[in-house]
Amino acid sequence: MNSTYGSVESTTSDEEVGTEYFVQQGVAIKSLSKLHKGSKSHKNAETHYTGLLRIMKYRTAKFIEWKPTEMSIFPDVDEWNIVDTGYKQNGKNKNDRNNIDIKINLATMKSYKMKKHKKHQISILQTNGSLVTFLFESSPISDFVTALKTLLHTEKEIRHHRPTGVILVLGERQDSDPLCQSIKELKIFPDQPPTSTVWSFISGFQNNPVEKTYETFAKISDVLLTRTPDTRPDQEVAELLNRAEEDDEYTMVDHPPPTVLPPRPGIKLRGNPLDQTTFYKSMNDEGQITNEDYIKNIIFYGGCEHSIRHEVWKYLLGYYPWNSTREQRINIDKQQKTEYERMKVQWTNMSSDQISRFNMYRDRKSLIDKDVYRTDRTLEFYAGEGNENLVKLHNVLMTYVMYNFDLGYVQGMSDLLSPILMIMNSDEVESFWCFVGFMNRVNTNFELKQTGMKKQLNDLHYLLTTVSPKLENHLKKMDSSNMYFCFRWLLVLFKREFIYADIMRLWEVLWTDIPCANFHLLICVAILDNEKDTIINENYGLTEILKHVNNLCERIDLDKALTTAYSIYEQLKEAQPSLQDSVNELLGFSISHSETILSNDSNSREDDYEKALSMNYT
User: Fold this and answer.
1) Which of 181, 338, 427, 492 is the most exposed place for a label (fewest CB within 10 A)?
2) Which of the two residues, 458 and 199, has the higher pLDDT score?
3) Would you say 87 and 77 are in contact if contact means Cβ atoms under 8 Å apart?
4) Strand partners, 114
């Protein structure tokens, strides 16, 4: 069954003309007698009544409307009247499906909730306590949820800083909303409701997250925001924005008021990079590095000289254990080479007949073929036709597909591999295993459901709320607190934001895990903190923030970002006793045991909501 957005005129029973904003067939209404076991029609309680679901916009109000489209035996009037949903039976014949309908005024919606393990079912609770449940067993629920988000201000209900699964309705969106206004100004779809497109765009990273990020953020920021209207490729943009699938699970969590922080410590200057003499002097006679922490600290404060990156990165990315001897490393090289060749031959020897029956493999190979051709081609290392380094880049990515077929290849991985292949002097084996080590750190960024990215965006918002509440308040006012403008930063660890020399230095700093594993989030906060005066004073909305962030590409001062991020870390460390446990946990500080019952409490809240819904029937 299909759902559509449109501007079709319709009339109500009293001839009022309305606009059909959303329509979806094949939606069933759940039998309201199911929980009312005392009813005389309980035998038919499992019957669902399929019909047409619409969202209608009238002159004074907007309604969710449902009308049956299948002949069914309807329950007694009294049973349907247990819940006042606006249901009407105009005639006396209970079997006349045209005489039964349900209308819900959006202004009276209090909350809605989808079943935790049944996402085809949505229950809508109204302010008067009445409830109605729709079933989407043969049609997608995602479009309906998207439509609700375009028309309503919503947020997840939070208990002890954790979502309960209930979506609270805060009120109806107006045409003057910053989000709506920004999209209207882009003039992408003059004949379509702007918010329907936008919500599908910003909440639908599930289908192909990296492609969504690069094609949407890069092209939207570049094509839409920096070109004049007459040069915008409207057809291409329409395809980009509508490609997303609704992800109903992600909503930015509202966090508690921030703690008042102590003054931020002064900036600590960066140090000198790790040089060749210091690195090799740290080894004993057998070639073991005797003080791993000492080396990591030098790297964190100053990076390392380019001449020894070929060796140092192998330790940072887990190719060599820090305490390995020279002899052990020789054996590791041999073993890893054998293992790499074994996996590589699996795809190089695959016959065309095999490939013809291996659809997933063909799709991944096709995506790698396209991505390799356009990865860092402006660099001399990858420039020109017939470049052997492109072949090696392709080989490593294809072999990784065989190594981790569950994840396979997702667009953007080539960006992570590219610098590694350069540093490893085009050695496929060393590049592959270092790439494996890198992916072990960031693989959740590329998962289909994007749970890792969602968590990072929420964690980033939490940190920003704590460190810069003034900026966070501005973002919230401008409907931009979802932090999606930082998505690309986190996805490929700033690969597109810094010049090549800086990105190698930044990555090796992050690989030390000093001062904490989430230091990259503090770098995001530092960059935003450095830009907050411009964002706030210029009163930037969503459109301007996207453009501004995009314009920072390759213009960010890395040393300033690193020193500011570390200063923020020290500031939060000093405030540790008064910080929320979530912040302490993010930064590796010790946390209290005050929230050890959260998991059980969350489950209890789930049960509480189910009981509350049930009470509407009895």
Assistant:
1) 338
2) 458
3) no
4) 122
Cβ neighbourhood burial of 17 (10 Å; 0-12, 13-18, 19+): exposed
Q: Which residue has the tokens 């559509």?
A: 4
* Over residues 155-175, mean pLDDT: 78
3-state SS of 445-508? HHCCCCHHHHHHHHHHHHHHHHHCHHHHHHHHHCCCCCCHHHHHHHHCCCCCCCCHHHHHHHHH
* CA pair distance 561, 129, nearest whole angstrom: 51
Q: 592: helix, coil or strand?
A: coil
Q: Is the pLDDT of residue 227 over 80?
A: no
Hey, what are 374's tokens? 């356009």
The C-alpha atoms of residue 527 and residue 522 are separated, in whole angstroms, by 9
pTM: 0.63
- Cα separation, 30 vs 134, whole angstroms: 6
Interatomic CA distance for residues 26 and 139, integer angstroms: 6
Tens of pLDDT along 269-279? 899 999 999 99
Q: Residue 68 and residue 131: Cα distance in Å, rounded?
A: 18
The torsion angle over the Cα atoms of residues 434, 438, 440 and 441, rounded to 10 degrees, is: 150
Q: How far is the C-alpha of 432 from the C-alpha of 337, rounded, in Å?
A: 10
Cα distance between residue 54 and residue 24, in whole Å: 6
